[in-house]
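Input record (one chain):
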Amino acid sequence: MNIDVVWFQEPRPRRSEPLSRERIVAAATALADEETSGEVTMRTLASRLGVRSPMALYRYVGSKDGLADLMADHVYGYLEVTRGEGWRPALRSLGTSGWATVRRHPWFARLAFSRPPLGPNALAVYDAALAELEPLALPAAARMGFVNTVLGHVFGSGLALVEEQTMHARAGITSEEDLANAAEPYLARIAESGKYPHFSSWAADPDRLTQQPQDFDTILEWLLSGLATMVHA
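The corresponding structure, as predicted from the sequence alone:
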């Protein structure tokens, strides 16, 4: 399988077009942030940029996949890796900055799963994280596994966030209380059936909607502690 890498393609701008790759990516990112699903069409993007034909955009981004790659790599630029303090602070900062980023740009989680991280910003993130793992003398697969464990937590949490937001928008739900009220009739039928007593007991507990004991940062620390067992093994 060949991957068409947009970063090796030089844009061919025309003097009559007030476009640049940077302007296109910035506009596409803003549009994705405005849409609950994060979907961006070339026609909508062209309209936002004041361009008559969407075809003009392809000279700068190559294809729809090329635009997705550029958007994802733009957002990778917000991820941070603490340097010089050891592998654990490095991966913790990668996780916390990544979570802050996907909360601002939830659609990024989808692109991170579907597009290869081969852009300059993504490579810089991986390179910095791997550099902090280098002193551990772990096998290459283990070093990348450490990085991907943290990023998997980031992107998995981000994907859950964007899907939840999409579901809420589709159903007209604005809060967890609205969701609980919408589900109440169905939960009552489940309780009446008597088939799932432990689930029904949980559903009847008035404290079930309080914050769970495990948030993103807590789970991140659990993951880092688990990875540490491989370091000292």
